[in-house]
Design a protein that fits this description.
With 468 residues, this protein is α+β, with helices and mostly antiparallel strands. It is 43% helix and 19% strand. The protein has four domains: 2-64, no CATH class; 86-225, DNA polymerase, domain 1 (Orthogonal Bundle), CATH 1.10.150; 275-377, OB fold (Dihydrolipoamide Acetyltransferase, E2P) (Beta Barrel); 383-467, no CATH class. Strand 10 and strand 11 (433-437) form a beta hairpin.
């Protein structure tokens, strides 16, 4: 601004307009200011060539330069935040999480940062958590109820007020009875259940979610009956009745999927964990190893992970997919080009377990690794390609007819035997055991559901896939 005043003849106000034009990098504005600056410099005895060179230097500096006063202010803030993060990590990270609690992606990143620096983040708790994230001690943070999607500040403050006035909640029915329904709806309670906020009272989230409607109805009935006098002029009182709705217990996958609905990500575990043991036999390279090891750029790798996000974009060669995989060790971007994308599009959806054969690419411009996919498979196809065998362990005299009927729907027919796996029945009784391999025409599709169905059959101890 001083150069514009002294050399270009600008006023203070006009010099500030030049500064704004430079910061916004608008070509048409800069072209106009260039002529103004050169003309103004000529009026002060500076030749056009010198004035143009000076303006060029100013324009170039604006592309990367930073004001010294700003630099000093940012340096001070950087020092202060680094000091707090080192000496008061729990308080510092809790404050950051509370500030960004409405942005799920940033909350997830900060939670990972907490783990990286040795902090423990406790799950949300309906009887302990506040609206914000709070430090419990120097190494522990309690999850804030306000970060649960679908709740809202008014609902959480109403819950905390009821808890402060009447003490901790005894169960789900106690909460719905004590909290004002004007603030806490069914949607809010269901979000709290999915997030695990009631685990301290009842760890069976499936039963709790199924019982939310009953708990709200019971609270409404109790409120309607309150104050009604009996025939004798006395007020009726009845003990609070708690009766949960029976429900099948969630699998780990169902639990995490519901948790993701409430928190925006998997907090208590990872979806890949359920498949990790088998997936590592089919694709032994963890995603973190791709980042750490100097894998040859032409070397083919076998990877597995759960899809975190999937999107597509148009290119000159057709539509391609950009997929982010995660296996609990790292994330990796996957590039799926048009022909493969068209064939395997149905697999590219969030939370899908995906097996990849591909080649590592190093994007020098973006400074990141990605994998160019040559082939994509789900677990069933990966098992078939790896020559998996379905092993059925039978104790004593099993029901052969029922076993046959359970296998029949999964048999591979129409000459596609290569897409199925062989069956080995391991029979044992009190005196011995023997393995019986069924013939080729009894190949089956290696689906998870088949193993689960077989495990429910009489005399079947377990059914699982193994590799030879």
């Amino acid at each position: 601004m001083r150069i514009a005043q002294e050399t270009g003849g600008y006023s203070l106000g006009a010099a500030d307009l030049l500064r704004r034009a430079m910061s916004k990098k608008k070509p048409e504005e800069m072209a106009r200011h260039r002529s103004i600056f050169v003309d103004g410099a000529a009026g002060k005895g500076v030749d056009a060539r010198t004035a143009t060179e000076l303006f060029n230097h100013m324009e170039k500096f604006a592309g990367y330069g930073f004001n010294k006063s700003h630099s000093a202010a940012y340096a001070l803030i950087a020092y202060q935040t680094a000091y707090f993060k080192v000496h008061y990590p729990a308080a510092f990270m809790a404050a950051n999480l509370s500030t960004l609690m409405d942005d799920t992606d940033k909350v997830k990143d900060l939670i990972e940062d907490c783990k990286a620096i040795g902090l423990k983040v406790l799950p949300p708790d309906i009887n302990v958590s506040g609206y914000r994230f709070e430090p419990v001690d120097a190494k522990t943070i309690r999850y804030g109820l306000g970060a649960i999607k679908g709740t809202g500040r008014g609902a959480i403050e109403a819950i905390i007020a009821a808890r402060s006035a009447g003490g901790p909640f005894a169960d789900l029915f106690d909460l719905t009875a004590r909290v004002d329904k004007q603030f806490v709806s069914r949607r809010v309670v269901e979000a709290l259940v999915r997030a695990g906020a009631f685990d301290c009272l009842n760890p069976d989230r499936a039963v709790l979610l199924a019982s939310v409607g009953r708990a709200i109805d019971a609270a409404d009935s109790a409120a309607a009956a309150a104050g009604q006098a009996s025939l004798f002029g006395t007020f009726e009182s009845s003990a609070r009745h708690v009766e949960y709705v029976p429900a099948a217990r969630w699998s780990e996958r169902e639990k995490l999927s519901n948790e993701k609905l409430a928190l925006g990500y998997y907090f208590s575990g990872h979806l890949f964990t359920e498949f990790a043991a088998e997936a590592r036999r089919l694709a032994p390279t963890p995603l973190a190893a791709v980042h750490q090891a100097p894998i040859g750029r032409s070397e083919q790798v076998k990877l597995a992970g759960v899809i975190v996000s999937a999107r597509s974009q148009n290119t000159r060669r057709g539509r391609m997919g950009l997929v982010v995989l995660e296996d609990g060790t790292a994330q990796l971007e996957l590039m799926v080009f048009s022909e493969l994308y068209d064939r395997k599009r149905a697999l590219l959806k969030e939370d899908q377990l995906l097996f990849v054969i591909g080649r590592v690419r190093n994007d020098e411009f973006a400074q990141r690794l990605s994998v160019s996919a040559d082939e994509l498979m789900d677990l069933t196809e990966a098992r078939a390609r790896a020559a998996a065998r379905l092993r059925i362990e039978v104790e004593g005299a099993g029901d052969v007819i029922r076993l046959r009927d359970a296998l029949n729907p999964y048999r591979v027919t129409n000459g596609h035997a290569s897409e199925g796996c062989r069956i080995v029945i391991s029979y044992s009784n009190g005196t011995g055991s023997v393995d019986v391999a069924l013939p080729e025409e009894w190949r089956v599709r290696p689906e998870d559901r088949l193993a689960a169905d077989l495990a429910m059959q009489p005399r079947v101890r377990r059914a699982y896939y193994n590799y030879v």
